[in-house]
Amino acid sequence: MKPMIRHPPPLVIRALDRSRERRRLLLVAVLWLISLLLAAWLGRALTERGDGARDAQTRADLETQNEELKSRVAIVQRAEQVAKVALEDLRKSLGERDEEIASLRADLAFYGRLVGGTRREGLAVHDLRLTPVAGSRAWNFVATLTQNIKRGQDIRGRLTLSVEGVQDGKLVTLDWKSLVDGGASSGIEYGFKYFEQVKGTIMLPEGFTPNRLHLQADGSGNRAEQDFQWADAVKIQETTDVG
Description:
By secondary structure, the chain is α+β, with helices and mostly antiparallel strands. It has helices at 18-115, 176-179, 230-233; strands at 124-132, 138-146, 155-167, 170-174, 188-192, 195-203, 208-219, 222-229.
């Protein structure tokens, strides 16, 4: 058997295509540039996503702070309202206390007149109160008279009122007869040993604004007179009782 003789492969010589190489290089460059752009875009997207998350967290924090501030403002406003109510209650209590003290002083003076001691004051006007009659120009009055000069003995007399005020821009004084009907034109009779509350009703004319009252009580050789400011004598209370 003859040995097999291997011949080398034929040598192929090909011409170099430079344009093809340039296209390949250009494609590689384009792909590289696209990868750079894609990487930049992805990086920016991730950055913006992170910024958006931070902004959302910041908004959430700000909303939480806003709610906390609203709660604090509501608490402060409520505390202010409570303080105003407490202050108003305190003022009211102080006013009531002052009225109570004034009433006690008046009562003390009243009973002091009744006891008298060594001092003899005779007939005296202790107090005068007015109450309006609803739906009219009428006013009911209660005058408290005292005496300690004739202990245990009746003192009798008549009581009258006059009212000073303004009507049609002028100062006017209304006497007793101008304030009542003809039945009591000479005054209201009274009679007592120690004290009495004399009651009556007066009628003010239309357009008259009262300012001051003058009370006069005559009886058993004694006379008592006293002036009262209308505002001080008025008791803020409406009544339908006339007389």
